Amino acid sequence: MVIKAGLVMAALATLSASGFANTVQKVRFVQPAQVLVWQDGALIGQGESVNVNGAATLSPGPFLGSGQLDPLNVFTPNATGKLRLRIASNTSFFVATTDPQSATQIQARVIAVGANAKAAPQASDARRGIVYLQSEKTALRRGAPDSQAIEIELSWTGAAPHDLRVIAASP
Questions:
Q1: Which of 153, 143, 81 is nearest to 118 (CA)?
Q2: Cβ–Cβ under 8 Å, residues 12 and 19
């Protein structure tokens, strides 16, 4: 009888322990929205928002896979009325200016797509100052950040835009 009671207790302990074995915890790692922007072959900024016409805004730590990034703090106005930017992003992004009037005078077009990138341009909204809108991330496959970039050319009439920004995520 004592042996039967011991077996019953052992079976109950096993059943209750197996109930705990089914507990599953899910962990989700979230990477913040990031854009990397190159101008004339030099990285000018990385982060959620990058000012194209001023001092670079680099993240405080290294961006995985890209090595040490040094800021480019000098901006030379472009006298030709054109500006080329290579942009890599892990989310949708847009190029905008705070002056909707100057946005109506800026045209944007994709001129190159990296080996591991894709372009997904959307109609821009000059009334809101949006010059170019990419509807999804540029990365198509794994690869170096510059291979996941698209190159856009901005051209304008009149004075050069002075407050262009590349901003991660949809407006």
A1: 143
A2: no
pLDDT digits (tens, 9 = 90+) for 72-99: 444 444 445 899 999 999 999 999 998 8
**HSE (side-chain half, CA atoms, 13 Å) at 142:** 2
Going by the DSSP 8-state scheme, the letter that residue 161 receives in this structure is P
Separation CA 99–CA 164 (nearest Å): 9
126 vs 58: CA distance, rounded Å: 28
Phi, psi of 38 (to 5 degrees): -115, 140
DSSP labels for 83-94?
EEEEEEESS-EE
pLDDT at 50 over 60: yes
Q: Which residues contact 8 (CB under 8 A, 6 or more apart)?
A: none
Q: How far is CA 165 from CA 104, 154, 170, in A?
A: 16, 12, 13
- Highest mean pLDDT range out of 47-56, 71-80, 117-126? 117-126
pLDDT band of residue 16 (cuts 50, 70, 90) is low
8 A C-beta contact, residue 152 and residue 111: yes
Residue found under tokens 């909204």 = 125
Q: Which of 102, 170, 86 is nearest to 133 (CA)?
A: 170
* pLDDT value at residue 26: 78
